[in-house]
Design brief:
Elements (H helix, E strand, L loop, with lengths): L29 E7 L7 H8 L9 E9 L7 H10 L2 H11 L3 E2 L4 E5 L10 H13 L2
Parallel strand pairs: 1-2, 2-3, 2-4
Length: 138
């Protein structure tokens, strides 16, 4: 929700991906999709949402973000390597949208959480708001 605050409240609809209906996407010019990273990819709900988007998204301006645990907080060197190598949800989502001809506005972004269910680490809410402001200004 911090990202949505950067946009005009009259034109912004912030919803969880599982709550979005196809009708909600009619007339949309910008689509920002976020997901927690689960097994190096988006959550099952977000994956289903992406799968149900139209095959062609030409002209739609998009951005993606995920939440993730900071590598330096993972004690095991092996698990840090696995996480760093496996990747994160935001890039996977961005690639799917670009394949459908959407215009990616910014590189995929990740925001750090303190645990599997959050909350965001100190300073991340402000960073998310600034990222959203960059998109709103485009």
């Amino acid at each position: 929700m911090a990202i949505a605050k950067a946009f005009d409240t009259e034109t912004t609809v912030a919803k969880r991906t599982g709550e979005v209906l196809q009708a909600d996407l009619e007339g949309v010019t910008h689509l920002i999709i976020g997901s927690p990273t689960r097994g190096f990819k988006p959550s099952d709900v977000t994956t289903a949402f992406l799968k149900n988007l139209p095959a062609t998204l030409t002209g739609l301006k998009v951005a993606t973000f995920d939440t993730r645990i900071a590598l330096e907080t993972i004690k095991s060197r092996f698990f840090r390597f696995v996480v760093n190598t496996g990747g994160y949800a935001a890039k996977t989502m961005a690639n799917q949208l670009v394949r459908r001809k959407a215009k990616l506005l910014l590189p995929p972004e990740g925001f750090f959480v303190t645990g599997e269910q959050g909350p965001l680490k100190d300073g991340e809410k402000e960073r998310a708001m600034a990222w959203g402001q960059q998109i709103a200004n485009m």
